[in-house]
Write a structure and sequence with these properties.
The protein is built from eleven helices and 16 strands. With 388 residues, it is α/β, with parallel strands linked by helices. It has two domains: 262 residues, Zn peptidases (Aminopeptidase, 3-Layer(aba) Sandwich); 112 residues, 2-Layer Sandwich (Alpha-Beta Plaits). The strands form four sheets. The chain has an eight-stranded mixed β-sheet with strand order 1-2-4-3-5-16-6-15, with helices on both faces.
């Protein structure tokens, strides 16, 4: 196990960067100040190859090692905040009402900047490191757009890695899930068509609210009675909109929700089954539907060789027992999945200690995790390039 003393020496400075970013959150594709801050720091480290404006506000910077020719490894951090009103009561709380770094992206960005400063100074590796600062992760589109704009080919990235803070996991610990790690996520809208009228005369109307209620109940069986209980699929209705008055039955109702799955087959099944179920129920009541299904992030899959390298790098920093290498998949989603579809790589979790959960108004990234995150990135680069 390598000492993290060198990375602790960066902690105070990187903490200042992290807290500045926390005070100044920006939503997806609005990260102009964040991108400017990142680019200025990278330039101050002596990094000459910095490209901005990728996927609007994204950045990719290259550091060339001094160990000779070799591949390029990509390290990714997300930069965007969430539309949440913060109540963490920290001195560095968000200065922008209704926006906060509620998922630790300020910490992710700061840790990668810390690793960039260290790697730009030491350059103890072969090949190159591509530092990927991604916008719009929370919208599920920033990673996809960076891939579509060709960053993997343009920067000759052969492998790519991501990291996310995890409340409830102790500081100084890491965890990773080999293979299937996170679910795909999709969104659906069901527009129920009825015939409106006076609430006093229900026999004259086709009530879209009643139809919507029956559809919602019916959707509960998509998982419970149509899929293998040992497979992972979640169908959640999250919105229901209908009507404006007390004495009028509306013409339309709208049901919206999400689908999360751990396999493409289940994803396809859910799309088909939701449409067929909703259409059948609506027709039985004399109504109809329009159905829209929006595919977002695919399943996040960690690749075997890269997962092994990630585990080794983490254990080089914190020791064998502080790295859990058999985490179970979760039904959360990550647009880093698009990068893992484009190139082999791995996505690891770093402990954030006993804090509020992510997407909670009281959440704050734990600055005590900073030296471990920096150390992981550095050891990952050095380990990967030795294995190249």
């Amino acid at each position: 196990m390598s000492s993290i003393k060198a990375f602790r020496e960066l902690q105070n400075e990187v903490t200042e960067w992290r807290r500045y970013l926390h005070e100044n959150p920006e939503l997806g594709y609005e990260e102009h100040n964040t991108a400017r801050f990142v680019a200025e720091k990278l330039a101050s480290f002596g990094i000459n190859h910095i490209e901005t404006g990728i996927a609007e506000t994204g950045i990719v910077a290259l550091i060339q090692g001094e160990g000779g020719d070799g591949p390029t490894i990509g390290l990714r951090a997300d930069m965007d905040a969430l539309p949440i009103l913060e109540n963490s009561n920290k001195p560095w709380s968000s200065t922008i009402p209704g926006k906060m770094h509620g998922c630790g992206h300020d910490g992710h960005t700061a840790m990668l900047l810390g690793a960039a400063k260290y790697l730009a100074k030491t350059r103890n590796f072969k090949g190159s490191v591509a530092l990927i600062f991604q916008p719009a992760e929370e919208a599920g589109i920033g990673g996809h757009r960076m891939v579509q704009e060709g960053i993997m080919d343009r920067f000759s990235i052969s492998k790519v890695y991501g990291m996310h803070c995890t409340p409830g996991m102790e500081i100084g610990k890491f965890g990773i899930c080999p293979g299937l790690a996170l679910a795909s996520v999709d969104e659906f809208d069901i527009f129920v068509k009825g015939r409106g009228g006076h609430a006093a005369y229900p026999q004259r109307i086709i009530d879209p609210i009643v139809i919507a209620a029956q559809i919602i109940v019916g959707l509960q069986c998509v998982v419970s009675r149509n899929t293998d209980p040992l497979e992972s699929l979640v169908v959640s209705v999250t919105q229901l909109r209908a009507g404006e008055g007390y004495n009028s039955i509306p013409e339309h109702a709208q049901i919206s929700g999400t689908v999360r799955a751990l396999s493409p087959t289940l994803r396809d099944f859910a799309q088909r089954q939701i449409s067929e179920s909703a259409n059948g129920i609506a027709r039985a009541f004399g109504g109809g539907i329009d159905f829209k299904y929006h595919r977002l992030e695919p399943v996040t899959v960690n690749h075997p060789e890269e997962t092994s390298l990630a585990i080794k790098a983490a254990r080089d920093i914190v020791g064998h027992d502080a790295v859990t290498d058999r985490l179970k998949p979760t039904m959360g989603a990550e647009d880093f999945a698009y990068m893992l579809e484009a190139r082999p790589g791995a996505y690891i979790y770093i402990g954030n200690g006993s804090t509020a959960d992510v997407h909670n108004p009281a959440f704050d990234f734990n600055d005590e995790a900073i030296p471990y995150g920096i150390g992981y990135w550095v050891k990952l680069v050095e380990t990967s390039m030795l294995a190249a």
